[in-house]
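Re: weekly structure request thread

Next one in the queue (422 aa):
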Amino acid sequence: MFDIDRWKEIVSALKKNRLRSFLTAFGVFWGIFMLIIMAGAGKGLENGMFEGVGQIAQNSFFMWTNQTSEPYKGFRRGRWWSFDNDDVLFIKNSIPEADIVSPRIFAGGGSGNNTVRNDKAASFYIKGDYPEWNNIDPAEILMGRWLNDVDIIQRRKVCVVGDQVVKELFESNENPIGEYLKVNGIYYQLVGVIKPVSNINMNGRSEESIFIPFSTMQVAYNYGSEVHVLGVTAKPGYSAALVEEKVITALKQRHKVAPADVQAVSHINLEKQFKQFGALFDGIRILTWIVGLGTLLAGVIGVSNIMLVIVRERTQEIGVMRAIGATPRKVIGQIMLESVFITAVAGYIGMVLGILILEGLNYVLEIAKANEDSNIFISNPSIDLTVAVACLAVLVVSGAIAGYIPARRAVRIKTIDALRAE
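Done, posted below.
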């Protein structure tokens, strides 16, 4: 049953050592508070990173060409070369582990206005894509549709634009679908509006881009069969790194580039990037728990120290208790209760305050993210409530252990010696 007199005794004992008790409780409070804040911030950073990459294929890689750095088969060093249309079929036919293969060409994004509609003009990134590109780096279709195979086959003069293009060239109450944009002197009918779901910008921000059928753009810009970027994904069960190595080796051989020429082909492997990010966040989590648990341990040691001081100052009182019949178990229990009281109350306050601050931070971030011009790299900072409660439980148990050590020392003192103590 609840013993009100015992709790009054505990509170009275703590009041006698008010300053030391407060400092000890603050150490416990600060330990669990910082553990929750650091763990929540780390989780928010991880969430923000993965939200930033959206639904982009994690088993994908992208390649583009550079000048050669080695002479090979009669070609001089420093030769300019490029991928071409036939490379797409070549990869599909010769690399069975490759799944999606999509080329891209691009232009624009300079200081001059390259896009005109009525009396409005602006500069945007111009990209020529296949429909498959949206399977590698998906975008949200806000209005209309994405490019399709018929656009490629018939070389239609149509375009899909990012949402920022619509904001700059159209009024808020206008429907852009079906309207025409004059891009570098050629009119294209707008058939779709997209919004990127990732922060990965391949050849310019997608929200500020105009997407034209790949075949149409090759003719309009007189690119011939030139390809600027190749996006490739690996089939399920295959490593993107393995596929990347095989594709680059095969393309070098096809274009007579030295196999050892590492400069000739630049590439980004998202699979490797995601693994590196995963290792980074694993390290952050481990560091967070090491620092947090270390701070908690310091708080528990502080509780043990304050209980040692309290026991020393109450030696005579403990002697009186023993003299009037208090059992060692009762003495130990009272001292341990004082220790548990400090850790439980301080730990609970630290846990609740830490969770409230994380919730408040999350609310502020949601408001900031509603502003489309904001660039937030942290999302939903939080900690699993089960983990937080488990930390509090471990802290209380540690507090009980911290109180047990001085309690055992107290009952070992002979009653007559305790009564003589001053």
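The mean pLDDT is 82. The chain is about 55% helix and 20% strand.
Next request, please.
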